[in-house]
Specification:
The chain has 174 residues and is an all-alpha fold. The protein contains ten helices and no strands.
């Protein structure tokens, strides 16, 4: 992926091909990582897409403040997919930084964006919003968001998320 970012696409493609030859079953997370990598390696990414990618790496490494700084640089968003991921990434950062009110605002913004790509972002936003409400003991709102998460179909990591949603639903007092 680094070779691709440095405009060494042919070399990156060679390594990608070698790295993705599997004899055994791979997990949903591995498949998702392959698809993300394929996008980076085999197509041109806009500056905004590269910034989102960098922010995602920083977030995954626990560098929330630097990730947020990069997201704040994204201006004049030119696609709904980038806008939706921008809101999701900001929500996740604020969630990790324990700023639940801002996190909830950005999770809500995710649902307002119309797109047919990155469908996993919406159910995950609903799940994470439900977690915040659960921690605040607002069980009705938590339940509403959990049911909203279950409405989505055919997205990456669906079975994993649905299990988490059902587990959290089981913890809500009746």
């Amino acid at each position: 992926m680094i070779l691709s970012i440095k405009s060494q696409k042919e070399e990156a493609q060679k390594y990608f091909y070698r790295a993705t030859q599997f004899d055994e079953q791979i997990s949903d997370k591995d498949l998702h990582a392959i698809n993300i990598s394929k996008n980076l390696i085999f197509k041109y990414l806009s500056k905004q897409e590269l910034q989102l990618f960098q922010a995602r790496w920083l977030f995954d490494g626990g560098n929330y403040q630097r990730s947020l700084e990069i997201l704040e640089q994204l201006k004049n968003i030119d696609s709904n997919e980038i806008e939706m991921e921008l809101y999701y990434r900001k929500a996740r950062i604020y969630h990790e930084l324990k700023n639940e009110n801002l996190a909830l605002q950005f999770y809500q913004k995710v649902f307002k964006v119309q797109t047919s790509k990155n469908l996993w972002i919406k159910p995950y936003s609903a799940y994470y919003a439900a977690l915040i409400y659960f921690e605040k003991k607002n069980y009705q709102q938590s339940k509403n968001f959990l049911h909203k998460a279950l409405e989505f179909k055919n997205y990456d990591f669906q079975s994993s998320l649905e299990q988490k949603v059902k587990t959290l639903l089981g913890k809500i007092p009746s």
